[in-house]
Amino acid sequence: MSDASMRLRxxxxxxxxxxxLPCGNGVMGALVYxxxxxxxxxxxxxxxxxxGSIPPVPDTAxxxxxLRAMLREGRFAEAEQFFPTLWKNEGxxxxxxxxxxxxxxxxxxxxxxxxxxxxxxLDMLTGEVTTRWSENGYxxxxxxxxxxxxxxxxxxxxxxxxxxxxxxxxxxxxxPVDSVEYSGYGGTNAPGxxxxxxxxxxxxxxxxxxxxxxxxxxxxxxxPAVREGAGLRVQGARSFxxxxxxxxxxxxxxxxxxxxxDLPDYEALLAAHTEKHSELMRRQSFSLCSESDSSNERxxxxxxxxxxxxALAEKLFNYGRYLLVSSSTGAALYxxxxxxLWNGDYRPAWCCGIFNNENVEMNxxxxxxxxxxxxxxxxxxxxxxxxxxxxxxAKKMYGCRGILLPLFMSPQSxxxxxxxxxxxxxxxxxxxxxxxxxxxxxxxxxxxFLKKRALPFMQEAALFYEDFFTExxxxxxxxAPSNSPENCPKGAFEGAGTLSISVNALMDFSVAKxxxxxxxxxxxxxxxxxxxxxxxxxxxxxxxxxxVNGDGAVxxxxxxxxxxxxxxxxxxxxxxxxxxxxICSLRNPDLFEACRVAVEKRLVLGLEQQTGWSLVxxxxxxxxxxxxxxxxxxxxxxxxxxxxxxxxxxxxxDLDMGITQPLIQGxxxxxxxxxxxxxxxxxxxxxLVFCRPGLIHLLPxxxxxxxxxxxxxxxxxGGIELDLQWDRSLDEVGVKISSKTDVELTLLTxxxxxxxxxxxxxxxxLRLRMDWSRFTASMSQSDLGLxxxxxx
Length: 792
Fold this sequence. Notes:
- With 792 residues, this protein is of the alpha+beta class.
- The protein is 28% helix and 22% strand.
């Protein structure tokens, strides 16, 4: 990887927290604004959430037969409001907790001369943000990172001017002026605060109206500091180091402690941090052989009127990995939420919650193939910590055993808490999350994880389906009530096009089919559950086959009364194509083509109804369809609409340029959402490599403009690592395959797959060279070493 591809460079400071450059160690995040006079660094802590109030789930299980009767009789409008009305009559009123901003670290400095040569830069290999400018020929520099070993914000301010610096440092609750209130999302305002300062440091105790609280402390080293009001002033020193500690108070989960070093040396602290951070970043590299080192602002201007430049693609890929490393590794206890680890709003959109119907899954789609399996552990930890809540949902709502996940949740509660129809009637969450549990095993081959964590979770998810699905007159399963996130069928019944409740959403069956298939596979690998295997196989046999509608598209609802509604950004009915791996062109070509048609039909939605994450999801679907140019086009549209100057991705554009949904609430900035940032990693990987156990597809969806490049460190199922490089001008593709065990693999090549079988021995990398002109030619074992392929 080039140094340029691992740097983000901004020529202007941030106007607000959404534009700032992020640092993080998985536990504490920082947003560096890069201002000269009144610099601000906003801190976040993964465990700082408002204290929500979610009462027990109302008991509606005995009324489920009435609801199902309404659905059978076509009384969908009545069924839509049935459970929500029962909850209202029970007096249910819950408030979800939401992610809160921590303090602002402030540094006030007044220059004597105008600035020149300003730049603010993030080094993704080290996690350090540097703000640099010159005054009257002297260079000034502020350097910032969040230490992994010490869990501290570390700052160094230095100048070449022999007169030294004059800086006032302080810490205070995040400025509400820099916070947007998205009405309807939480009820916590800026905290009250108590400030104190002495020569040892500045201390802040902040408490919110609902009881959430945190403490922060700032200390200065390497220069004399004099108390001034609630801050510390440093005068005359050529440099100093400031350290900031932040700790949530009275939190239900353990907060990772900070450690004050005795004699802090910035370079030593940075080196200790970089050793841990860079090891994660260096596990994988992606190059399109670009030498450009343009600033973010200039790259965005170019992207607005042209294709996705190779340099931009490289940076977005590396940035997505950087954000995942910085928000969900190390000592992290919580998964990356809707904004990862960074938020400056006291009432953030959608509470910054953990959304189980697309968003949190997208956060982690690039983790396993990207060589970051440990990033998933905080997600598993929080999910497992809320199992009793999930069991309560299943039992009280539907009288079922097993677990039922809410559409969205916080780390504090896994109860269903929102009675809106599209949330209350959605049941596929546990099965979808189970995919990540089993995939973790498939990539890592960690048998203990499979036995102690993945298998128990999958069994509980399966119990729910065994109780929830009912048998229809054909002896096949029926799923009712049902919901296909977050779409509504057209249909010919009252309220069609606006009602979320449905019957037999394809997603319900595809998720259940995947779950039970994986459950049987896991049990056979561990040689357990012999007494359950026959029952699970009978369950699978009763899942109805997928249907294709009159347009030739796979049907979103498998019920003749429910007509497909193409005007929606979610593509949940394509689950068996992506993120599932059930449908492919070789095994089921008719369904593969029906998925292609379904995507084409979705284009009637138009660009004005897309979002940042939906464009990335569309790129992933196109990659599975082997349409590399269309996948790249989706990323081009994203870069022209939902990309901030710090390359954060937004839910929508607020520029009214015809791409993405209108503003969620008029006059407010588009909400930052991180899943598109992280999903870009998965999209690029899917364009370059697809895998299933025992099979690897090389360059299945390579965009035509990516004529030369490489990807190193791609992880494939079965403990296999892959390096890949290609150069069309040299008519050459090179592959290196390493395996932990002896394995036989089927390789597919190019957009029109041809196959070849290869043997890879443990510890002995296999190297292949392929002529590009023959890359998609038909191959067999007897052709190996001929037909444009050689083995080294």
